[in-house]
């Protein structure tokens, strides 16, 4: 099938503006009553609720424990004090050589392009990060370019955030042109959840700057459950692949969302059917407010051992953990049953 762009589709910024911002708005769409949902007023003050409607459409009607709903529904349980959980578990504050750059690993840098996202995930390890809502100004992009020229060993730039695809294509295009002009760079990586929650983010304008870039482009999507991947996502991924983009997925292992063999197997199978390869499955970072999603590392390793029995090796995401101070992500071996 040749994917065709639907020119009558709503613009992603319209869909973003129409995103759900409270449980009260969400309940009628899912046929849930107020009594079934937990109190959330305090949690919403600490971290706003934000859920685009295309994502809501993939939730199961009437299911208060829906795995997509659990990821985004504010819950005052987040406000309980939790010993051992931190506001900056990855110690990124220590690796900020200058505004917007996180340089932890030798040959790649992470650029924080914006603090905002199209969806607010309750388990997010960046929920307390002091980004402000501002996007990188042109002058700051120029300082990223300066930083790169001073670090010729860096051959890959990773656009992160927040969500870098929150930037308009009219902003991204010129930024990427500057990266194209640096001979040291081989690859441009984009870490984004936006094409999952609003597939129309993949539009003509985005494909244009992708096509105009000489860099190899890798899009690392973020999804945690098979139900997040629908036909609309698959169609957009097909367009990206036509443009030569390598499309990967990273997820987070979350209690009550994807902590079963079936959920993990279904996710990998669905990703592959949509043209996406599993990359990482992260163990949960001990972020303040997220303790109710946490699972032990040994549970994660046993779970992935059972998943490995059911999937071909190329559909096994690497179970990984970010340990502050380490020169790369730490990959955890699945524990096999015999
Ligand atoms: C996770 C991360 C990367 C990317 O690591 P990969 O293993 O290449 O995916 C790069 N920089 C920082 C700061 C990171 O946290
Ligand atoms: S999209 Fe990513 S960065 Fe944004 S809230 Fe969700 S997990 Fe965090």
TrEMBL record:
Keywords (A to Z) from UniProt: 4Fe-4S, Iron, Iron-sulfur, Isomerase, Metal-binding, Pyridoxal phosphate, S-adenosyl-L-methionine
InterPro entries named among the record's database cross-references: Aldolase_TIM, EpmB, Lys_aminomutase/Glu_NH3_mut, rSAM, rSAM_sf
One Pfam family matching this protein: Radical_SAM
Keyword Phosphoprotein: no
Residues annotated for [4Fe-4S] cluster binding in this entry: 117, 121, 124
PROSITE patterns per UniProt: RADICAL_SAM (PS51918)
Listed CDD domains: Radical_SAM
Catalysed conversion reaction: L-lysine = D-beta-lysine
Sequence similarity: Belongs to the radical SAM superfamily. KamA family.
Name of the protein in question: L-lysine 2,3-aminomutase
